[in-house]
Design goal:
Layout: E1 16-21, H1 39-56, E2 60-65, E3 93-97, H2 108-115, E4 119-125, H3 127-140, E5 144-153, H4 162-174, E6 179-181
Parallel strand pairs: 1-2, 1-4, 2-3, 4-5, 5-6
Helix pairs in contact: 3-4
Amino acid sequence: MPRFPVPTPLLTVDQTALLVIDLQLGMFDGVRIAPIHAGEALLVRAQTLLAKTRAAGAPAIYVRHGAHSGRPLEPGTPQWEIHPAIAPLPTETIVDKRTPDAFLDTTLLETLTASGTKRLVVVGAQTELCVDTTCRRAYALGFEVALVADGHSTWDNNVLTADQIIRHTNQTLAEWFVRIVPLDAL
């Protein structure tokens, strides 16, 4: 039985935060890796959601992936920075991570607990790694999680297209871990 049988309001000021996962310049610029699937549309959706979040007075928390030296998203490189189209405000939190799990060895749980957050609205990249892992971990930690259905992306792999990965992840996570919500419903 799904965990969220009764709809609850999202993006209310109390207890809800927007989690923006790994929307860094290196995912979009094509310098070190191919641009992410439908990247421009993803940025527009993230901008829209950030505007709604800020207007509601809810916190936006950015997660930024740091890769090993010499790899794309290496800390301190331009590709590691949050994409300027969705740049955090000075008052918004950035949590740095080194693994697909945004909670592992980071300050994310402490940040959410301190703000009284109980619900997360999630957008970001990479669908089958950081987004999937963080959503599952958030659920295991007791958070209500809403994954924006068209608010995450990835790349084609040797087996599936990016679009197939996104649809598969939405379907799989919706079974237990998240409520899938289209951007228009927020």
